[in-house]
Write a structure and sequence with these properties.
By secondary structure, this protein is of the alpha+beta class. The chain has 18 helices and 10 strands. Helix 8 crosses helix 10.
Length: 475
């Protein structure tokens, strides 16, 4: 897909880099005999094989770190393997230029332009193309993400957070942006499908069977149809107009059957009619609504867990516009719709004075998410020493039959976060699972409950609210 966009969308940029590399080779007696065609294809293949957005060689200072050298080596090795028809020595020369091993005025300019260009190539080729084609579980297809990695263990999560605290304690923690493919709350719902593969397979096949008569000459294709079926419960309730706009953008970005540059009227018309017929089928829409309702509860718990982790894990949390409450937006421009801040201000003033049971009762309004966000930000303001570069991160591990369903960690001496994971499989039953709290008196700032520094059943710690934020009380 990167080759595709480098050829069809970003071709002029590749041509400019190729022209500069031609001049470089013409001034080097060992490489002046390569044709422009060879140089062009070597550059394009290397960019397509780049494993990261870009390197950060400081040309003026003649400095490049070892990690960036390794990224260049990986790209060159992959490009050689993909293009055995091109001279391996040409790729080696390109590597020496990019790694600052071979220097010169023309080369310095080339390296700077090359570094600036690999990022857009990655974004356009992977995020804006491949991520609309590979629909195994679309919640994984996120900006900066890797849909090839399916799930993360608690141990991996803790190791990553410890590394962030050690090396990048001020990094931004963002769960939604203007460029996300689907909002944090949509992803939290779609994630739940991974816990119910049998039921989901049966459901998706049932919908496909019911909708099969709506196809036009076999269109749309099954892959596009599967994207539609994941999106419906993920963004539910969603009307036909929004779904039409989203799916049109998705299939054009995928560039498999149609595109922005070369729209295929037959395919797009078939897709439009398919969606129209889908929304007109009352029995099918009722089935979709029923299944979406089954995902809504677990999705909201996932959202609360994600929100509290973002607000208390190493880094600086960022909240995208509108995500203070449940937000089921899809990709731009859907996620740039006007935000009702008046509603959020009013709800915030109300939740500040509500008992936690009333906050939960008003979950359809987004009160639990807003309450979690407000409370966590209050704790960050009161105890800044527990967060930031001067803070610490300590993993906490539960014991018992459902221990793998809990993520818990301590920030500094005085803050503890507890959230569930894989909530469908948990089914609200913690059994004998317990967590040892450090010495001291702790208060759950989300519920007001107090706990001593001892072992407590997780079912008691999370009895009144799906997640917990414990703060040590002053001696």
């Amino acid at each position: 897909k990167k080759i595709l966009v480098l050829r069809d969308v970003l071709g002029s940029d590749v041509n400019r880099l190729s022209a500069e590399f031609v001049h470089i080779c013409e001034n080097d007696r060992n490489h002046r005999d390569y044709t422009r065609h060879d140089l062009h294809h070597a550059i394009r293949e290397t960019i397509a094989c780049f494993p990261v957005y870009r390197t950060y060689a400081r040309v003026a200072e003649n400095k490049i770190n070892e990690r960036d050298r390794e990224y260049i080596s990986q790209a060159i090795a992959a490009a050689k393997a993909n293009r055995p028809d091109l001279d391996a020595e040409l790729f080696d020369f390109l590597a020496s230029v990019l790694s600052l091993e071979t220097r010169g005025p023309l080369m310095d300019e080339f390296v700077m332009r090359f570094q600036q260009f690999t990022g857009p190539a990655m974004a356009k080729g992977v995020e804006d193309t491949a991520f609309y084609c590979y629909n195994r579980l679309v919640s994984l297809n996120e900006v900066g993400g890797n849909p090839g990695k399916f799930g993360t263990s608690p141990a991996e999560f803790h190791a990553y957070c410890e590394a962030v605290q050690r090396t990048h304690p001020s990094t931004m923690l963002a769960s939604s942006t203007h460029d996300t493919k689907r909002s944090e709350d949509v992803r939290a719902r779609v994630n739940s499908l991974s816990e119910m593969p049998g039921e989901w397979r049966e459901t998706a096949c049932r919908w496909a069977f019911a909708a099969d008569r709506n196809r036009t000459d076999g269109l749309p294709d099954r892959n596009t149809e599967y994207l539609l079926y994941q999106t419906l419960p993920g963004a539910w309730p969603i009307n036909e107009e929004r779904m039409q706009q989203y799916m049109l953008k998705a299939v054009r970005e995928a560039k498999q059957h149609t595109s922005w540059l070369n729209p295929d009227e037959k395919f797009e018309t078939a897709l439009k009619r398919f969606i129209e017929a889908l929304f007109a089928a009352q029995d099918l829409m009722a089935d979709i609504a029923k299944f979406a309702a089954k995902l809504a509860g677990p999705g909201r718990v996932n959202s609360l867990a994600q929100t509290l982790v973002k607000l208390t894990a190493p880094g600086v949390p960022d909240t995208y516009q509108g995500c203070e409450v449940w937000d089921l937006s899809l990709v731009d421009p859907d996620n740039r719709r006007p935000v009702d801040y008046g509603y959020r201000r009013k709800l915030l003033e109300e939740v500040k004075n509500l008992p936690v049971e009333e906050v939960i009762r008003r979950e359809d309004e987004g009160a639990p998410k807003l309450w979690t966000m407000y409370t966590a930000l209050q704790v960050r303001r009161e105890l800044p020493g527990c967060f930031g570069a001067e803070g610490s991160y300590i993993p906490l591990y539960a014991s018992g039959e459902k221990a793998q369903h809990l993520i818990a960690f301590q920030r500094g001496p005085d803050v503890i976060t507890l959230v569930p994971r894989l909530v469908i499989g948990l089914n609200g039953e913690w059994g004998n699972t317990s967590l040892q709290l450090p010495e001291g008196a702790w208060v759950n700032r989300l519920t007001g409950e107090k706990f001593a520094g001892a072992a407590h059943s997780v079912s008691m710690l999370l009895k009144r609210f799906p997640v917990a934020l414990l703060v040590r009380e002053p001696a």
